[in-house]
Amino acid sequence: MNAHATPRHVRLQVELVLEVADPERLAAAAGQHVAADEFMPDEERRHAVRAVAEDTAEAVAYLVDPIDLVSAVPGVELAQASWSSEQVDFDPRADLWHPDAAEDAEAPEEPGAPGSLGNATEADTAGGAGAGGLPGSARA
Asked: What 3-state class would DSSP assign to 81?
């Protein structure tokens, strides 16, 4: 296949399940991250500080930036990013969490469907959580 016929865009889907072993430490780190964001408006900062203190999924969303996953990949430029964070019941024995389960799925989930990208803590911003917006998505 020549360079002109090769698709120029690649969708990378990653799903992680994190165990929060120390919610207080997580909330404190997220609160410090929010406080250090010089571009966040004061009203949004007050809301964010409360949110990360009360909700571990919000705290994770403020600290984990998927844009960092691809920022150092040579030869690519980020076109769009979206992420969400939500609390889930996790059973490692459930078929849903097995790596081969994705191959057995009949159809991809619709955006906004439970468990898909597009729900929970998501918002469009110009730079993700670190650039003065809520965690969620960014377009470069």
From this structure: strand
Q: Which residues, 6 or more positions from 123, have their beta carbon under 8 angstroms from its beta carbon?
A: 133, 134, 135, 136, 137
Rounded-to-5 percentages of helix, strand, coil across the chain? 35, 5, 60
Whether 125 and 137 have beta carbons less than 8 Å apart is answered as yes
The per-residue pLDDT string of the chain (140 residues; one tens digit each, 9 = 90 and over) reads: 555 677 889 998 888 899 999 999 999 999 999 999 999 999 999 999 999 999 999 999 999 988 888 999 999 999 998 888 999 888 877 766 665 655 555 444 444 444 433 334 433 333 334 333 344 444 34
Closest to 87 in 3D by CA, of 112, 121, 62: 121
Rounded to an integer, what distance in angstroms lies between the CA atom of residue 50 and that of residue 98?
Answer: 35
The residue whose two tokens read 């998501």 is 122
